[in-house]
Amino acid sequence: MKYLMIEPEVKAIAPNIALMKWARYCEMHNYEYQYVRGHLKPDIQPDKMLMSCIFSTYSEKYENTINFYRKLFPDVPLIVGGAFPSLNPKWFTVRWWRTLKNGSKELYLHRGLYSALDNLSPKYNVTITSQSILPYHTEKIVLYTSRGCPNNCGYCAVPRLEGDMKSLKSISHMLQTAKNEMPEANSVVLYDNNFTEQEYFDKIIDELVEFGLPVDIHGLHVDSFTEHQAKRLSELKWVGQSKSGSPYIRFSFDKMKYAENIERALRLTAKHKIRATFFCYLLFNFTDSPDDFWRKVVKTQEMVNRVGKSIVLFPQRYEPLNALKRDSYVGPKWTAEMVKGLVRLCRYTRGFMSISPSGNMFRWIGYSKEEFINKIIKIGQGANIEKFQGDIIYELYS
């Protein structure tokens, strides 16, 4: 059996984890395979083709990639998985529905997770045939210790894609495999959706501490964050304590009701001297309003003033789960000018809003809700953003 694994050429920090696991699967079963990125003729005549499509906003790139390989191998089954086909199968079936001469379908969809791959270590040193000019960060060991999430947030695809929490009991075999296959690796990135709900939290922390590399955990949730977890996390090296990235402990402030628990988590990270900056994703353009965004920033400043520890906010623009283009959706309580203005404003601070006890961020975004909204409208309408700079940019990065 010969497998062709296809990764569309989109921006990514690392190879596709699902395809890396398929490479491991093929290796274990002595199947011949080739992993390709972008549009190119492979070195094998495949029996099956596998492709992963994550974000629906890359739909045009996906369509071009599927058509390229369908034309190259018109009689070979192509199986497409990932978030996009799981959430929006109709987009695929209306385009590729024919039956091939050999009786197989033009395109097969796999929806959700594939259980046969769950416990496999990704093949970190997989050879990728590529003409891409978009580089990977090959020094990062990327993996999951859990899938799913017990929360059912309306803006999140995870419950629909992965279901309830499923926790790995151990990741030591993955870490050791990665070390053997990536001897120059300098950090570990956990893509868990909600690491605070990991059933074997202490065991995983023990393994990470023993492994010794700095860690970046992308999914922690303030509602379930405990003092015990804060104490254990303080034992970790965090990415940014070396030269491998930014030292962030990542939460989210997507709902105002999280405010009390955000402050509690902030106090716990300060109490246990976690050597990472407190970081919050800040959703906007969903069911919220510009007023809500302003209130969250003010609430964050109040927490910082009480605790004496800074918070970095990272505003994230909401996109519908089936959006086919980036940056086109405008929430019901926003206008296109407001969204565009806020996005442009954030770009000038490299995407971040650093909320410190000095309160400098308000010199940048405005000292009142009215001033803030007026600024983002004007910037969204094309006003020269430079006039809002002054010496604020210097203060942010000094």
Question: What are the main properties of this structure?
Answer:
398 residues; alpha/beta; Transcription Regulator spoIIAA; 2 domains; 4-stranded mixed β-sheet; globular
Please characterize this protein's 3D structure.
The chain has helices at residues 17-28, 59-72, 83-87, 89-93, 158-162, 172-181, 201-211, 227-233, 259-271, 290-307, 336-347, 361-365, 369-380, 392-397, and strands at residues 2-7, 32-37, 48-52, 78-81, 108-109, 128-130, 140-143, 146-147, 166-167, 187-190, 215-217, 248-252, 277-284, 311-317, 353-355. The chain is built from 14 helices and 15 strands. α9 runs parallel beside α10. α2 links the parallel β3 and β4 (78-81). The protein is α/β, with parallel strands linked by helices. The chain is globular. The chain has 2 domains: 2-115, Rossmann fold, CATH 3.40.50; 139-397, Transcription Regulator spoIIAA. 34% of the residues lie in helices and 16% in strands. Strands 5-4-3-1-2-6 form a 6-stranded parallel beta sheet. Strands 12-13-14-15 form a 4-stranded mixed beta sheet.
